[in-house]
User: Which sequence fits this backbone?
């Protein structure tokens, strides 16, 4: 790498901070709409966060492996890293802080955010090592078109035509029920389910292609990135007319719109930070350098707070929220947001501490 792309580090840290923000409100019943996922079809700022992280994973893959050749040692390192992510994700699903310290396995969720990151990382890295950029683009187009045609037009075994609505007449939900059964986030679907992993890989591949573009000698890269992003967003919204934008399905239109928005954001940040050298938000960059570690700890601690009993019919989370944050001076939604922001600040502080101690935990 010629020099570290600071805008990528900064964007990674901002994304992790946003993940923690939307995952840790004080009261899930009192959350501002932009900090919630769309109920089904549609797009909120929260829906942009996870695809943006997978997009950055793709950029990181480009820089990490651009000088490496496909070989058994490289494949082994990729496989080990992917396996670590999957195991950490499964651990989050089964762990509980009170005896017997593990959830009942008969209905524990199998998919998850870290599991999807691990699978997407493995396949994207393998494809990058074995394919040129034209082939990667062709694979991406094929997956997006094939996913649309399969979900929208392939009849079910009983002859019923599919829809893009929630179960039962939805291929993504149908396959998850057949493969995962009770081991899903909700009884009728999982947002990190089996079929949606394929277009999620495209999200990461598009990150690889953007990383390649960033590393080129082209002039006016920031402007061109914004232009490319705008085209992708436009195409995504046109596709939305026949294949709705949907995070739970990770629809093809969702891939184009979110990757396009990610490209626009990165282009603007690249111009500000790397071209103009207007440095800001270093605290987010520090968190981005230990992104997976911070995300894992935030998820583990948050789950523990919900499970540890305190007093009468309360857990540690609710006790802390009601006794430290709730007051008559703020609305309930604002109080819930302040709690989440406080949690974010704690983990940003952890990121800064790890950076100062020169501790970088690679997962």
Assistant:
């Amino acid at each position: 790498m010629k020099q570290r792309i600071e805008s990528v580090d900064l964007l990674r840290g901002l994304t992790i901070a946003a993940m923690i923000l939307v995952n840790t409100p004080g009261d899930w019943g009192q959350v501002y709409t932009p900090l919630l996922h769309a109920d089904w079809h549609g797009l909120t700022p929260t829906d942009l966060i996870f695809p943006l992280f997978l997009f950055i994973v793709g950029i990181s893959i480009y820089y990490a492996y651009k000088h490496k050749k496909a070989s058994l040692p490289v494949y082994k390192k990729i496989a080990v890293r992917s396996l670590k992510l999957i195991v950490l994700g499964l651990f989050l699903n089964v762990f509980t802080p009170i005896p017997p310290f593990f959830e009942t396995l008969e209905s524990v969720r199998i998919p998850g955010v870290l599991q999807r990151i691990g699978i997407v990382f493995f396949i994207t890295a393998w494809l990058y090592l074995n394919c040129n950029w034209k082939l990667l683009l062709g694979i991406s187009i094929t997956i997006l078109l094939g996913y649309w045609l399969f979900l929208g037009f392939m009849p079910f075994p009983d002859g019923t035509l599919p829809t893009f609505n929630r179960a039962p007449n939805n291929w993504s939900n149908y396959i998850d029920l057949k493969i995962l059964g009770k081991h899903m986030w909700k009884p009728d679907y999982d947002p990190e389910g089996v079929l949606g992993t394929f277009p999620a890989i495209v999200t990461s591949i598009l990150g690889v292609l953007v990383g390649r573009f960033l590393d080129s000698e082209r002039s006016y890269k920031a402007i061109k990135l914004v232009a490319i992003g705008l085209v992708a967003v436009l195409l995504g919204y046109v596709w939305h007319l026949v294949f709705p934008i949907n995070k739970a399905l990770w629809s093809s239109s969702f891939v184009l719109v979110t990757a396009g928005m990610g490209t626009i954001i990165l282009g603007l940040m690249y111009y500000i930070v790397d071209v103009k050298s207007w440095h800001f938000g270093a605290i987010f960059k520090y968190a981005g350098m230990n992104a997976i570690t911070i995300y894992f700890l935030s998820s583990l601690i948050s789950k523990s707070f919900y499970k540890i009993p305190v007093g009468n019919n309360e857990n540690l989370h609710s006790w802390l929220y009601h006794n430290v944050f709730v007051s008559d001076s703020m609305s309930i939604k604002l109080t819930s947001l302040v709690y989440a922001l406080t949690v974010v600040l704690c983990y940003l502080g952890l990121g800064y501490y790890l950076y100062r101690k020169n501790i970088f935990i690679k997962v």
In short: The longest strand covers residues 309-310. Residues 7 and 222 are 11 Å apart (CA to CA). The two ends are 21 Å apart (CA to CA). The beta strands are 309-310, 314-315.
